[in-house]
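To assess whether ligand presence alters the predicted conformation, the chain was also submitted together with alpha-D-glucopyranose. Input:
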Amino acid sequence: MGQPTPALNDDWWRSAVIYQVYVRSFADGDGDGTGDLAGVRARLPYLAELGVDALWFNPWYLSPMKDGGYDVADYRAIDPAFGTLAEAEKLIAEARELGIRTIVDIVPNHVSDQHPWFRAALTGGPERELFHFRPGRGEHGELPPNDWRSEFGGPAWTRLPDGDWYLHLFAPEQPDLNWAHPAVRQEHEDILRFWFERGVAGVRIDSAALPAKDPRLPDFTAGRDPHPYVDRDELHDVYRGWRAVADEYGGVFVGEVWLPDTERFARYLRPDELHTAFNFSFMTCPWHAARLRTSIEDTLAEHAPIGAPATWVLCNHDVTRTVTRYGRADTGFDFATKAFGTPTDLTLGTRRARAAALLSLALPGAVYVYQGEELGLPEADIPLDRIEDPMHARSGGVDPGRDGCRVPLPWTAGAPHAGFGGEPWLPQPAGWASYAADRQETDPGSMLTLYREAIRLRPAFGDAPLTWLPAPDGVLAFTRADALCLVNLADPPAGLPAHTSLLLASGPLDPDGRLPKDTAVWLRA
Ligand code: GLC
């Protein structure tokens, strides 16, 4: 194709901007209403223009889609709704030509109930050993083997016609694998090789702290230590094995590790284990200066001793979109408090999200941007009869589920379905076209313009460590290299420290040149 491939450096993941692609909702190339690889390939120039270093694809494998693809039936095949393996290979290569790397998503805790292993297990084959099958309790085995609850609500066990029960920490269509079995380990190392051979640069590990189970499958008693299935020590040996595979290819990992205990969290990032893990403490942190500062300080302190870079995440495909969350009375995120009809001020939320974008992009480490975040998309209300996320039904209809952050993207304001493609699999709310990328591209005040500028200017912070500057209450101020970031969360406008030039602001300064509430600025010191 004439153009030399841009040189890519080995340490890219330490400071990368990584864009999360939820393929089903990104862009629909064939007009069937479901996003696909053709859609992504057609939009690679948009992603290059945005300036991202890598793409993380949510699972794109063959799947009955009972949990948006996190129910994998075959890791070596692309779901036909998305395309083919040959297309995935092309996409990986084309992105690479633009200097963009690919990260795939591996789901070790479970497979789909349509996976050949589970189908064989159901017929009573030796594959039963690859899962957790148990007789029930009670006189006739009518009670689940233990008291574990599914993350999506309801019991974590389903009974089969033959009387046995099987374990699923998520939906019944997602049976948990038995990680004490060597074939499970071998298979996952082979899957990693399969994708590294195809040129992927990294792997996101789904529910990374859950796969190992106490073999006795004891009841869960609050405070039980060690926990029967969260963060068990034997997992570290599994990830050391994975790391050895990744090192053969120069591949990197990002773990989905939800653990409040920072010391336990950091264990996953030891030099012979995972390279990085998502920073959920920052993602769930309310819009509050002191709490944000604590979250940032704790993050840096827990990563420093192991030499692992931090990651900064504001949202993803599982949580309330940023502009909506920041526009509510409770600006933190908690699965337990999600509710229908929460009052939201989107103007306020958007202002804060703009400031938060500059904050997170100024911090040392890697930053994740979830598709549509760069367009400032709000969480959408999905009509009840169109909600697909199993979290909704399994909560007895109480939890709105996660579809509100998974609505197909608006690309072209004047086109049908805002240019997404065919009639979208999830309905786009009224007014969605006003967020269209083509409109924002030409608007200097848009969220898209802010993200593009910020990603372009971000190298001003270099790879320098962070130094806090003295600042009034409610103001965050720090320098890295010769750049400075100031975020004002307080009512009084904040004076700007001495600087040579203003690099970027998330909103207008006041007439005296001071920084208003919920606004951030980057300065050259
Ligand atoms: C992770 C994914 C989520 C999925 C769950 C089960 O938390 O991010 O979307 O439902 O794992 O695989």
